[in-house]
Amino acid sequence: MKKITKMTAVLALALSAGLITAHAQQKTMAIGTGGTGGVYYPLGGAIANVLSKNLPNVQATAEVTGGSVDNLKLIGTGQSEMGFTMADAALDAYKGEDKFKSGKIPLQALLVVYPNRMHVVTVESTGIKTMADLKGKRVSTGSPGGATEVMAFRVIEAAGLDKDKDMKRERLGVAESVNAIKDGKIDAFFWVGGIPTASVTDLAATPGVKLRLIDHADVVEKMNAKYGKLYSAGVIKAGSYPGYDVDNKMAEVWNIIVTGNKMTDDEAYNIVKTLVEKKADIVAVHKEAESFSLDNQVQERSPVPFHPGAMKYFKEKGKGG
Fold first, then answer.
1. Chain CA centroid to CA 124, Å
2. Most CB atoms closer than 10 Å: which of 188, 205, 281, 307?
């Protein structure tokens, strides 16, 4: 009887050891994205699917977060393996500045993804037509965990306004901002994201509402003079949103997917290779993934160094750096 019990125990131990080994081989990978009304979240979901489907033993998941700042902090604490971020927030984290004064985060870029366009959004009924018209208004500058707030403050400053004295400021994500503007609780909001952003489309398509985007490309030079060459002037083209029939001249900044200092060269190589080569699957979810191209993998678009594994793939393809 004792013999059988002992054998059962040995067998159970062997089985559980086997299960533990199998489990250890399955690598879970959290990808920090953003709020559900933006572009990081659907793109992150598409990336997680592509990685889980094409990399053996990888189970990737897209996590809802406040955005770039949250994503960088999650990488810093080891709670996420990868995250989307705007270039300006990444540079702050890498240098330990602004929202990252508690310590530098050892970041490495995996892929330069697409340019984020600053939307300064209002509706025709507010009478706001220029940046100067924001004075005295109720304005949301983005959620506390996102990089919209970082860039919004810089745009406001470069436009000659004081973010604290010149406006009544709210800190809402894009979906909440749209609801607040519909309800007449705010007059305008800042949102930096891809084209189209689902929540802005929703606002533009609302009956009885006429979307207005405020031009501000003229502030780019001042922003770059103070913060480094991170920003460029761009255009949100007429027709990007329902009923929006004029070009909007605005400031833009590149997005990158980053990791910390724990990812191996092989892991980084395989992730980057998969994202570039399976781009069509990601474009099917959101067209901003068209920018996941080798031509965009240049160091001047990322203020943090590329991961050696990513560089290996780019060099094989005669690109990058």
1. 29
2. 307
Written as six digits, the tokens of 34 are 């953003």
Q: pLDDT band at residue 238, thresholds of 50, 70 and 90?
A: very high
- Which is it for strands 27-32 and 82-86: parallel, antiparallel or unpaired? parallel
CA pair distance 89, 297, nearest whole angstrom: 19
The answer to whether residues 192 and 234 touch, using CB atoms and an 8 Å cutoff, is: no
* Residues shown for the chain: 321
Residues 74, 244 contacting (CB under 8 angstroms): no
- Alpha carbons within 13 angstroms on the beta-carbon side of residue 158 total 21
pLDDT at 7: 53
CA atoms within 13 A on the CB side of 230: 24
Q: Of 71, 67, 159, which Cα lies nearest the Cα of 110? A: 71
pLDDT tens digit sequence for 101-124 = 999 999 999 999 999 999 999 999
Instruction: Label residue 287 exposed, middle or buried (CB < 10 Å: 0-12, 13-18, 19+).
Output: middle
pLDDT of 321 higher than 70: no
Cβ-Cβ contacts under 8 Å for 76 (sequence gap 6 or more) = 93, 103, 105, 260
Whether the predicted pLDDT of 9 surpasses 70: no
Q: What is the CA radius of gyration of the chain?
A: 22
Long-range CB pairs of 282-286 (<8 Å, 24+ gap) are 282/43, 282/46, 282/47, 282/50, 284/46, 285/42, 285/43, 285/45, 285/46, 286/39, 286/42, 286/43, 286/46, 286/194
Instruction: Check the CA dihedral 264-265-269-272 and report its sign.
Output: positive
pTM for the predicted model, two decimal places: 0.86
**DSSP letter assigned to residue 307:** P
Q: What was the pLDDT predicted at 18?
A: 54
Helices in 162-264 by DSSP H: which ranges? 174-182, 198-204, 220-227
Q: Provide φ and ψ at 74, rounded to 5°.
A: -65, -35
- The two structure tokens encoding residue 95: 């240098």
